[in-house]
């Protein structure tokens, strides 16, 4: 079970969810030459999840000591965090754990933010891709239009006498 922040709300009974077309990763233009480096000071949804409250310390995150200025390491290391999260997922109590780098919610946010580890698949990025990938959308659209016009083309073909079946070639 995933945390409430990552689950989609179910529509009220009697209503069906509207089917939204998925955005295509294929771009017919060459606007996107490559992914630009992100500004380290810019807002990041994944970084916003990992904010530590000084009054109630998160044992999964490091914290800066305000008196000395030194960093206090997290109480649980990354391997222990991963084990705890796996155990919490098994017993459906993950939403009760504090957020950390190994939590499902953080990983889903990070994946949406950074993409699928393929350049250009993150939020607001475009894929340069191979030429066949860039031209795929237009080819699929042409193919769809041709399939829509197929019954008319068959009717015209039969009117001209081409649809009488197989005709043998004359013998020599």
TrEMBL record:
Gene Ontology cellular-component annotations: mitochondrial large ribosomal subunit
Pfam families from the UniProt entry: Mitoc_mL59
The organism of origin for this protein: Penicillium alfredii
Biased amino acid composition, Basic and acidic residues: 28-39
Segment forming the signal sequence: none
Record-annotated Large ribosomal subunit protein mL59 domain positions: 40-159
Annotated segments matching region Disordered: 1-66
Name listed for the protein in its UniProt record: Large ribosomal subunit protein mL59 domain-containing protein
């Amino acid at each position: 079970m995933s945390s409430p922040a990552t689950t989609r709300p179910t529509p009220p009974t009697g209503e069906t969810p509207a089917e939204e077309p998925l955005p295509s990763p294929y771009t017919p233009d060459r606007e996107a030459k490559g992914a630009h480096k992100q500004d380290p000071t810019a807002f990041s949804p994944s970084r916003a999840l990992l904010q530590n409250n000084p009054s109630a310390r998160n044992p999964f995150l490091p914290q800066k000591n305000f008196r000395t200025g030194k960093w206090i390491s997290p109480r649980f290391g990354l391997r222990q965090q991963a084990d705890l999260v796996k155990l919490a997922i098994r017993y459906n109590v993950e939403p009760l754990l504090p957020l950390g780098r190994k939590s499902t919610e953080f990983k889903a946010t990070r994946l949406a933010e950074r993409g699928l580890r393929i350049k250009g698949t993150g939020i607001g990025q475009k894929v340069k891709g191979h030429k066949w990938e860039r031209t795929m959308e237009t080819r699929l659209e042409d193919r769809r239009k041709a399939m829509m016009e197929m019954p008319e083309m068959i009717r015209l073909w039969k009117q001209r006498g081409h649809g009488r079946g197989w005709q043998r070639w004359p013998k020599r």
